[in-house]
Give the backbone structure.
Amino acid sequence: MSEALLEVRGLNVVFSGFHALTDLDFTLRRGELRFLIGPNGAGKTTLIDVITGLTRPASGSVRFDGRELVGRREHRIVRAGVGRTFQTSVVFEELSVVDNLDLAAGFRRPLPALLRRRRGVSDAVAAALDTIGLGDLADRPAGVLSHGQRQWLEIGMLVVQRPRLLLLDEPVAGMSRDERDRTGELLRTVARDHTVLVVEHDMDFLRRFASTVTVLHEGRLLCQGTVAQVQADPRVQEVYLGR
Ligand code: ADP
């Protein structure tokens, strides 16, 4: 078993007396693709917010690669190698797909198309473009992308920053079946070089693409295991699947 990249221990988050997370222990091993599920209000987004420094816990620790993240500012956590997607889009619609990737990669400003043709895109941007399968649309403005393509661009914009841990919040929400399949394949590709935690509700998607699933309920860890194990757990059926 590979070593832990992320270790959450005894995490408690309280909002004005309401316990959003209670005594949560949670571990991600390096190279894992883990799915996080649970009914609305279970604490999934709160967990991601704590890992990324947006929310400060009442107590507990979040160790990333052996270093404590609790108390660190958000940008320092990003610099330590933690990247996340938000439910609101971060894509610049008027810029091309490749310029969005360039910007995300930390270029001071996007190169004009002519100059890029001469200099070429960086290896990291070219690799990200290939990974997300948008090579044919590289020079089109991001505003013309379909909903699914835009989500892939956002994943590319994270990957190009070379984080060690990617936190993705409902990446297939609102996608067609075909787009969901392509996203599942993309997550598998990304997980070859990264540790990935995905918040996802879509059980059909989980059955096809998830290996290990963690279930939260009312701020506590309910159970974790393979999709089959989790689905067979009577507690999960009661609180989450409703069947
Ligand atoms: P999930 O992502 O699993 O749907 P959340 O982590 O968003 O759940 O929320 C967990 C609980 O914490 C919910 O009951 C939510 O209303 C509450 N909560 C989240 N953020 C805040 C906040 N900033 N202030 C008060 N309550 C909050």
